[in-house]
Design goal:
This protein has 3 helices and no strands.
Length: 75
């Protein structure tokens, strides 16, 4: 697993995106608790989709590539 806090720039991005995630939830919760819950559910779904898409675009690690080649039957 990759460490997301390898340098100060990565730490700043993590703090920025954390604030960007929670700020709309807090504002919506001030308006209505149910609206805050709806924003939470919507944002969480978007984050899950983005994380899964990002993981599917990553190239396989060399150890995974060898395992996949070994699993295929020889013709």
């Amino acid at each position: 697993m990759e460490n997301p806090l390898q340098n100060e720039d990565a730490a700043f991005k993590l703090v920025f995106w954390t604030i960007a995630y929670f700020a709309p939830i807090v504002v919506a919760s001030w308006i209505s608790p149910w609206l805050g819950f709806g924003v939470f559910v919507l944002e969480t779904a978007v984050v899950i989709v983005l994380v899964r898409r990002r993981q599917s675009l990553r190239p396989l690690e060399p150890s995974q590539e060898k395992a996949n080649v070994a699993d295929t039957p020889a013709e």
